[in-house]
Amino acid sequence: MEIVRLCLAHFPQLKLVVRARNVQHFYELRNLGVTAIQRETFESALLSAQDALQVVGETPQEAAATTERFRSHNLAQIEATWPHHQDEARLVSIAKAGRQQLEELMAQERQVTLLGDDVIAHPPAKAK
Prior knowledge:
By secondary structure, the protein is mostly helical. It has helices at about 1-10, 25-30, 40-55, 60-80, 90-115, and strands at about 15-20, 35-40.
């Protein structure tokens, strides 16, 4: 973090590309104004997940699409939670809502997969 602070102090126009060890480190970097942040283990975890999905029967295209949807959702969640990362109750609330949203998305995709060519025009109703 000290190197980031020094770079920003001495070269305020400098565009930094930084690796974050974890989500908390990501938040700390964002607080300093860094926007180009790569999480160290995130991409390798997605590659492992993609391989695992293929092992259990998804085609390479299906596995890639599934992991890309998760990747996009996760990155959007991180951005959504960043402004609230010091408010634990709000952070938990956003995380729960995001997890529910992802579960619903995946359930809808499973439904479409099960229906095959008989895709319905309306997704299944949300559980109440």
